[in-house]
Design goal:
This protein has 6 helices and 9 strands; from the N terminus they run H-E-H-E-H-E-E-E-H-E-H-E-E-E-H. The chain is of the alpha/beta class and 250 residues long. Helix 2 links the parallel strand 1 and strand 2. Helix 2 packs across helix 6.
């Protein structure tokens, strides 16, 4: 076990090692700014739905850049970013950390997924979140930021979490809805191609104020990539602008 002094020494040693890596990276990038390895962390309810859209484009735009992708829960991505194990984190806002630069990317709306035959499945327009009042909503287990985001919507709408069940993944939630167990909130990218639609699920969109989450790109303010990363962020913004539905409520 480390003493208080030992913990302080270890923390400072981590800073020294991070800066040593930064010095090497700065020297290498002076030769070829768009080459090297970029370690990117994303959380599980974003990674599988965003990456198919952005990876091919980033590879085409930056052919010498090696993308090393890590999928972990938000808290782990945040910590690894701080520790220097990751160069970039794509996270849902807010993230309160003065050591990190925040570059907003896009807003992602939530849609309501209901089983076919549900009273709301025949709705052709938009609905208020108040339709959730008194309903039981299927949610993810603790540690997923989507759980916290969906819970805040449910609490405002007067809905409750279905007791006795917490999913480990978004795909489990989707299958539970398809099986008629309940309803859930899905992020927009999780219902966009190449994700195939389910014949057993109907999607219902919300009217104003539309529940959404804000996705941003974070990196350490001292990162050797600091001058390069805004260009990556701009490419991602351009891609996602074409993926999100055109809505008047922002």
């Amino acid at each position: 076990m480390l003493t208080a002094v030992g913990e302080s020494v270890v923390e400072r040693a981590r800073v020294v090692l991070r800066e040593t890596d930064n010095i090497r990276e700065v020297a290498r990038r002076a030769t070829d700014p768009e080459a090297g390895s970029l370690r990117i962390g994303l959380f599980p309810t974003l990674a599988p739905y965003l990456l198919p859209h952005i990876v091919p484009v980033l590879h085409e735009r930056f052919p010498k850049l090696e993308l090393l992708l890590v999928e972990e829960k938000s808290a782990v991505v945040h910590q690894r970013l701080r520790d220097g194990q990751l160069d970039v984190g794509l996270l849902a806002m807010p993230v309160h950390d003065d050591h990190l630069h925040c570059e907003p990317l896009f807003d992602e709306e939530f849609v309501l997924a209901v089983p076919t035959g549900h009273p709301l499945s025949s709705v052709r327009g938009t609905v208020s979140t108040s339709v959730l009042a008194g309903d039981n909503v299927l949610l993810l287990e603790e540690g997923h930021c989507l759980r916290d985001q969906a819970l805040s919507v449910c609490q405002l709408a007067g809905a409750e979490e279905r007791s006795g069940f917490r999913a480990t993944s978004l795909e489990t939630l989707r299958q539970m809805v398809a099986a008629g167990v309940g309803v859930t909130l899905l992020p927009e990218l999780a219902v966009q191609p190449p994700i195939p639609p389910s014949p057993d699920i109907d999607l219902v969109r919300f009217d104003s104020p539309i529940p959404r989450r804000q996705i941003a790109m974070f990196w350490r303010r001292t990162s050797a990539y600091a001058d390069f990363l805004p260009g990556i962020a701009e490419v991602i913004r351009e891609i996602t602008d074409g993926l999100m539905p055109a809505r008047s409520d922002h």
